[in-house]
Amino acid sequence: MKKVLGLFFGLYLLYSAYDVYISGRFSPDGYYEIELGVFKYLVTSVFALLGFLVVYKTINRNEKISVNNETLIEYSKCPKCKKSYNYSELKDGMCPTCNVKTIEMEEYFKKYPEELNDV
């Protein structure tokens, strides 16, 4: 859902940049229009840059959560019993069945790529 909203907002900014460039006016509330004159190029550039930035950041969004620049693991998998767990449900990242340290999903499938075929 966040990606859809991010893409929508980014495309809206790009459309606004196009509209300001063509008309030379900006309407912040939809009714009142501001004639920009020579500033239309500056406003167009700002909207276009923000639009491209929002679209880029939305597409390349990192789904990992970080707190104090420390990445938190969202899902992990036990290398012994092959069960997947929500990391927040585990105690110290240990598998409740095998008592083995679980591995983050991304790292797990790098280590065991043949299991991607089973999914």
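The record above closes out task 2.4. Task 2.5 opens with a second protein, given below.
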Amino acid sequence: MLFILFTLCFILQQVNGAELTIEELQANCPDDKELCMNKARQGLCFGSTLQAKILRKNCACSCDYAHFQRIQNCCHTIGDHDMKFCLPICRYNTTTEELTATLGLKCVSQLTTWTYCAADGSDNSDCCRTKGIPNECLSFCQGNVPACDTKTLFGYETCLKHIGSILQCQQEGLSMMPKFDPDYTADCEWDG
């Protein structure tokens, strides 16, 4: 039974992205303790448990890197491969200024993918409501934002003001294992 569970976890990691390595963490977080790196590799930085919150505070670099790798893997897997130049905005710390700047406007067709990946296949509406996110912005919390052009993006101006709180809910809603569907496709009809 244990072998089957291990095999299933291995298959899920292969489908949802390569395992985070100590070498990667050491290269990106040279000042973090090995304990932090091991906890990040185990997925213990994800979620809203007290342990995860303490780890994100005490092991900020390793946890931030684990979150970054999770969302990047999703965006890389399901995003439009002709739009790989948009990967820099696929993060949990993307700002409103970045979304409305040149790269953000060039990548507006990928906003649906980015919000889906930030949610990682979860509906975080309860958290967003707790943080006072307006009802018209809950689609961001659900990872279901049909925004494929700049006109639609600017229609979400109210929501963009809350993007920090929304992304915090998305991070807190992550489970230890990725839940995104690698076959997901955004419903976007680009109208230029």
